[in-house]
Amino acid sequence: MLQFDKAPKKATNLSLNSKVLEAARELGMNVSQTVDVLLANEVKRRYWEKWRDDNREAFEAYNERIRKDGLPLAKYRTWGKSLGDGRVETV
């Protein structure tokens, strides 16, 4: 999993919209901290989106197996009547 909490800061140059930057400063915003948090969130979002896309084939194979065979150990469930694949347990 991505861990950004304890990483050291590194100086960088950014080109930002001058009007937005001015408004942020007038509001007393810490621009560096705000950009850092927003960028970290976007990196995490894209990381997990890529992970999901990279593993899509495995998800589909698993789901197909469940559709075909039902949930593993479903017969031992003590709640509900579904076997996990749309079939209903007959008593």
* Count of alpha/pi helices: 3
Order of helices and strands: HHH
Cα distance spanning the termini: 44 Å
Helix percentage: 40-55%
Total strands: 0
Please give the oligomerization state of what you see: single chain
Shape: elongated
**In percent terms, what proportion of residues is strand?**
under 5%
User: Low-confidence runs (pLDDT<50, min 5 residues)?
Assistant: none
Mean pLDDT: 87
- How would you sum up the major sheet? none
Compute the CA-based radius of gyration. Answer: 24 Å
Which class do the helix and strand fractions yield? mainly alpha
Short description:
The chain has 91 residues and is mostly helical. It is 52% helix and 0% strand. It has helices spanning 18-26, 31-54, 56-69.
